[in-house]
DNA sequence: GTAGGGTTAG
């Protein structure tokens, strides 16, 4: 029977990646009225019909990144009285964890919904909540979700390992890794990645070597994580290992996919092999915006600012949509190349022409752009005119500029103004004392340390903002 | 149907 609810459901499940088709099917489902739950005839199969269709639609829209639409579909689902089931929540919760889904995040109401519908015992549902809470920095809730599982499977354990890693608790991640009854390549990769995201790059590489010695077969994700660690470490051993991985991938005749390719470009860019990065970029059949961003950064960090900006022009011509990161990369290139006018023009056009709203990072780039070029007063004015309170990165850029341009009266003025502006800001105080210490003005450093105490700043981070 | 991967000044 053409266009029965069953046949449309099958189509959705079979071809969920074809955006236009999904939209057509969606329209057809609406026209046919299949989304309205029928409870009158009492047949259990038709009771769940709209639920299954909604589940498939939520999944399909999540699949091509339309997370907002997934969330909207859930709201519709409730208003149509189609009861969500255990299959509804994993996709829904994933949509809620996605940063593009907008705020406020509805994840917690989903938790309540899942409890109400009696699906919280489902291990798939629980695992997705573990990841959700981990993403939102609520490690306690993630643990609770995990601990209430009677016999967590390897996937649930992997999700919990990742939850620990993402929230900086590598000890617990390793403990769970040791204690779990079986491990797979995802377990290993999650730990490698955990060391990486906690900036423990040497240990990431060590753990990768351990994985190899245990005869675990790495997969693409493992290599991507490893390459990223090698890129950040940048010692000869790390560079050697990264090149070895590349060589292995070439010998295995594995086509460079977007993730691997982007990781390689980043690796070569950060370790100074610009030509290798360009080669990889040229070989890639499919490029995403991240790929272009990595290449732009590679060019700009190796002193080819003009080429970096040319590549940005090419990206636009090829119809790519620049991301937030793209603008950080191009604005940085402008700052390095002292292209003040062009940088300011780009900054103005980013929200106007590309719909990318500047974040604190972008303000930091412009502060850097002005400051490096010696426009310290303009940079200060710019910081004051920002729509949000400057954070340590913006102030770091400003002080970086002061460092380049020497100890002028203006610098002292800037310092004073900013100190008054953000006396409570522990990040700033650290920046200030670092800068002073750096300039061998230990008396001032001590002075600022005292101010930190007087200002009642509780926490002084154990890292320095200026490297 | 649940887990892990790439790009971001100073």
Major β-sheet annotation: none
Percent helix, as a range, is over 70%
Question: What is the gyration radius calculated from CA atoms?
Answer: 26 Å
Structural class: mainly alpha
* Topology, number of strands: 0
Shape: globular
Mean pLDDT: 83
**Content of β-strand:** under 5%
Low-confidence stretches: 437-467
Order of helices and strands: HHHHHHHHHHHHHHHHHHHHHHHHHH
- What is the CA-CA span between the terminal residues? 68 Å
Our count of helices gives 26
What does this structure look like?
The chain has a domain at 1-120. It contains 26 helices and no strands. The chain has helices at 5-14, 19-32, 44-63, 67-79, 88-97, 107-116, 123-135, 139-147, 154-166, 170-179, 185-197, 201-213, 220-233, 236-251, 258-270, 274-283, 289-301, 305-317, 324-336, 340-354, 360-372, 376-384, 392-404, 409-421, 426-438, 442-454. Mean pLDDT is 83; it is low at 437-467. It binds one DNA strand of 10 nucleotides through α5, α7, α9, α11 and α13. PPR repeats lie at residues 50-84, 153-187, 288-322. Keywords: Repeat.
Which descriptors apply to this entry?
467 residues; mainly alpha; globular; RNA binding; PPR_rpt; TPR-like_helical_dom_sf; Tetratricopeptide-like helical domain containing protein; E_motif
């Amino acid at each position: 029977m053409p266009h029965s609810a069953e046949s449309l459901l099958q189509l959705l499940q079979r071809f969920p990646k074809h955006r236009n088709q999904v939209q057509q099917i969606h329209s057809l489902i609406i026209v046919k009225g299949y989304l309205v739950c029928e409870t009158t005839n009492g047949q259990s199969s038709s009771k769940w019909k709209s639920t299954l269709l909604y589940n498939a639609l939520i999944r399909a829209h999540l699949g091509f990144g339309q997370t907002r639409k997934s969330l909207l579909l859930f709201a519709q689902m409730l208003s149509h009285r189609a009861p969500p089931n255990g299959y509804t929540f994993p996709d829904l919760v994933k949509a809620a964890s996605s940063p593009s889904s907008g705020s406020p995040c509805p994840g917690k109401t989903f938790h309540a919904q899942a409890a109400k519908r009696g699906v919280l015992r489902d291990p798939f549902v629980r695992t997705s909540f573990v990841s959700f809470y981990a993403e939102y920095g609520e490690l306690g809730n993630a643990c609770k979700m995990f601990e209430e599982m009677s016999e967590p499977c390897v996937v649930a354990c992997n999700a919990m390992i990742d939850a620990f890693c993402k929230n900086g608790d590598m000890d617990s991640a390793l403990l769970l890794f040791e204690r779990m009854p079986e491990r797979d390549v995802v377990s290993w990769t999650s730990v490698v990645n955990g060391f990486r995201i906690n900036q423990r790059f040497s240990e990431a590489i060590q753990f990768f070597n351990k994985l190899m010695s245990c005869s675990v077969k790495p997969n693409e994700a493992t290599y991507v994580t490893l390459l990223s660690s090698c890129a950040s470490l940048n010692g000869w051993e790390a560079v050697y290992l990264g090149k070895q991985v590349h060589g292995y991938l070439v010998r295995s005749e594995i086509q460079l996919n977007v993730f691997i390719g982007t990781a390689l470009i980043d690796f070569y860019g950060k370790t100074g092999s610009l030509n290798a990065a360009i080669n990889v970029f040229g070989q890639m059949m499919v490029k995403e915006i991240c790929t272009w961003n990595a290449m732009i950064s590679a060019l700009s960090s190796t002193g080819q600012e003009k080429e970096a900006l040319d590549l940005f022009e090419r990206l636009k011509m090829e119809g790519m949509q620049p991301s937030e990161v793209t603008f950080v990369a191009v604005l940085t290139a402008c700052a390095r190349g002292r292209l003040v006018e062009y940088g300011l023009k780009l900054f103005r056009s980013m929200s106007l022409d590309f719909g990318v709203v500047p974040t604190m990072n972008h303000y930091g780039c412009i502060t850097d752009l002005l400051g490096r070029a010696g426009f310290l007063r303009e940079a200060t004015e710019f910081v004051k005119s920002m729509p949000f309170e400057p954070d340590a990165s913006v102030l770091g850029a400003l002080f970086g500029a002061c460092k380049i341009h020497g100890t002028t009266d203006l610098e002292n003025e800037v310092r004073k103004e900013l100190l008054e502006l953000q006396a409570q800001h522990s990040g700033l105080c650290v920046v200030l004392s670092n800068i002073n210490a750096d300039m061998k003005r230990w008396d001032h450093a001590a002075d600022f340390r005292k101010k930190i105490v007087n200002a009642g700043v509780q926490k002084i981070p154990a890292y320095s903002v200026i490297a």
